[in-house]
Amino acid sequence: KNWDPDVREDMEAFLTELVPESTPFRHSCEGPDDMPAHIKSCFLGSHLTIPITDGQLNLGSWQGVWLCEHRNRAGSRKMMVTINGALRD
Question: Which InterPro entries match (predicted)?
């Protein structure tokens, strides 16, 4: 449901309730948002495969790609794109 911004907000609220920063995690040396960020990343994954057709991302009508940051004050991030396939003649 990429077209409706409420979906993103509901997802964020659900994940925050599911894994609150107030949970007394043992791994807390990097801040109270660190371990919840690891857990949220496990639920959502860190890689994605999208088919490309005629040079365009082949997504359904309601599909989109979200880049999620689960830390409150995260550093810079890098994204790597790998394209597999063959060129047409």
Answer: UPF0047_YjbQ-like, YjbQ-like_sf
pLDDT in tens, 51-86: 999 889 999 988 889 899 999 988 899 999 998 887
Domains with residue ranges and CATH for the chain: 1-88 (2.60.120.460)
Among 21, 26, 5, which residue's Cα sits nearest to residue 71? 21
Query: What is the DSSP secondary-structure string of 6-72?
Result: HHHHHHHHHHHHHS-TTS--S--TT-TTHHHHHHHHHHH-S-----EETTEE---TT--------SS
Cβ 88 vs Cβ 27: under 8 Å: no
Q: Please say if the pLDDT value at position 33 is more than 90.
A: yes
Question: What pairs with residue 57 in β-bridges?
Answer: 52
